Amino acid sequence: MKKNNLLLILVTVFIIGCSTTKPEGNRQAVTHPEAAWGWHLGAQAYTFNRFTFTEALEKIDSAGLRYVEAYPQQVIGGGIEEKMDYNMSEDSKKYIKQMLKKKNIVLEAYGVIKTKEDSDWEKVFAFAKSMGVKTITCEPEARLLDHISALCDRYDIRAAIHNHPDPSYYWSPEIVLASINGRSKRMGAAADIGHWVRSGLDPVACLKKLEGRIYHLHFKDLNEKGNKKAHDVHWGTGVNNVPGVIAELKRQHFKGMIAAEYEYNWDNNMADVKKSVENFRSIVKGN
């Protein structure tokens, strides 16, 4: 009789354990449907450039995101006046790692990097390695592309070439492709779909041209095409064909970070980011 009671208790505990853990997994799949595609949906901290990096992490967390792309010019915060510069002190690195762990946010990428001195590129890669960064988004001078390629292989870190609008050097996918051709497989594109639209380009067509070499995205939706002054709107409500972009990323089996970069309503745009993320996840589930 005692054995039967013990067996009943063990079975009951097992059933309760399953019922408490299974819904969490289901809830994660529902709330973060992009994870099933290997997409790390996060934010470029530049979205919150009116605030410190510490404050940006708070906002990213509140928007339901778990990944961040840091940029060098942002003040760290939390009583630290240093910036997110690759020359920061070891104490600042320690603080940042503690904050990331506390918020359960991954520092996935770092950029967009342009350097004044050629020798700074080694420092950028060394810093990225020390912080666990997987991808450096950058716009190096063309003469330094071989050097960047070698650093990618030496540090086992990806360099994703970012496109600002025309007449920026890397504005078109053709130029990015030519820049990475014949170089390290760790070199690819940081596709900024908003800047493509500002340049009058079709983001879906641009993604097709870069197939297989897209390592990172800056995600936007804009109110107007072909206008450098076009501003961000909630994803799926503008001219960027967000459903088409998502469908194309699925078709390509893209894996990597998709960084929200909402460059509008600067002082109070966290709700805009949150709404955009909600729209994105709804389209991912229905697309």
Automatic annotation (TrEMBL):
GO terms for molecular function: isomerase activity. It comes from the Bacteria. Pfam families: AP_endonuc_2. Gene3D superfamilies: Divalent-metal-dependent TIM barrel enzymes (3.20.20.150). Keywords: Isomerase. Residues 58-282 form the Xylose isomerase-like TIM barrel domain. This is Sugar phosphate isomerase/epimerase.
